[in-house]
Structure prediction request, 432 residues.
Amino acid sequence: MKLDHVDRLTVYYEPAPERRRRVGRLALVRRELLFEYDATFIATGLELSPFRLPLAPGVIAGKPDVLDGMPGVFDDSLPDGWGKLLMDRRAAELGLTGLTALDRLALVGARSMGALTYEPEVTIDQPAVVSLRELEDEVALVLDGDGVDLEKLIAIGGSPKGARPKALIQIAADGRIHYGARAIEPGFTAWMVKFRGAGDDAHAAALEHAYFLTAAAAGIAVPHTRVLGKTKRHAGYFAIERFDRRGDARIHMHTLGGLYQLPHGYPTFEYADLLTTTRALTRDEVSVREMFRRACFNVLAHNRDDHARNFAFLMDERGEWRPSPAYDLTFSTGPGGEHTMLVAGEGRAPTREHLERVAERAGLKQAGKVLDEVRAAIARFPELAERAEVPAKLRRTVASALGLATTGARRGTRPGGARRRRRRAGGSARRS
Prediction:
């Protein structure tokens, strides 16, 4: 099999197989990435990316110094971190190096997250029949730089974002697991499984599951989560139900970073900007309060990997937007020990006062009530972590970093103290 570079792609919006619409065309011309909406899609009035790629006739040229010229809405379909590593290595095996963003979209094809698909699709994998333990072994070989069956990993990997290795699976009510995500089979639901990355705690899966239980107790909308494959000798794998799938229906998803075409790891976005963006996009104050609730959770629960790609929005077929369920919630020290997203200008040691300023700047009322509810839920972390079967030592370490007594009683939030204890809790689950 010989691969060639791709210089033309057609983009489709495909909420269901029978309701596929052509969005437009992408082209790479003399190293410049161009996009043009199809006239029939403009007529639908569906704004897939209202801030940076509004519906309008004519050719739009990308900025080569931002996302390789790719509009953010299409960049959201591309893998980064782990998925990009697999894609690049497999393409190199087939003789193609120096992949462009257009090449990678062609390799994603119909397996993208969300509801956008791309043609022509270039296939570089074969369906795989595997187990989670086999996948874990393959992941370890890739991380060690050894030879491995890349076709197998790509077949079940799809295009999820994030640095940690992932697999896309389907789970039936009776517990059967099928691998891959080309089509969700009747009686199955779509899930994503995370594997431990280098430096992660052995019990990172249980800890992340505990964080989702805590977020749910705080009133935050979260997907179902579980730990798969746990035995006496193995700590198991974190699994989260996908919110961009509902049976064979696909839901359009756009990250906050993609909406603004922010470079990956962009460090100076503010939580107040997240709230004002939510209001502008959804025109719904309940959604704004939901995003503020997540800001409070990330600060009080020491989840500092809160970059702009870790917040997303979903659009239905009527063009109405809402926040996606929360994802990538776990204990994290963040880059240099700071929050990636600033809290009223503060990254290293944000306090309740900083969160109140975020709410004030966004014109949000009842901020104190939300803060108290989130604080009360986080006080339950030791109890919920025990339910998630987080080992006692790790429970105590994280609870101490959160300023909690191991019995669950609150001692008060002291960001400085949490910072001093960070080294003891570091490595629990650093990256998503």
In short: Residues 408-431 have pLDDT under 50 and may be disordered. The CA atoms of residues 140 and 146 lie 9 Å apart. Residues 285-300 form the longest helix (16 residues). The two ends are 33 Å apart (CA to CA).
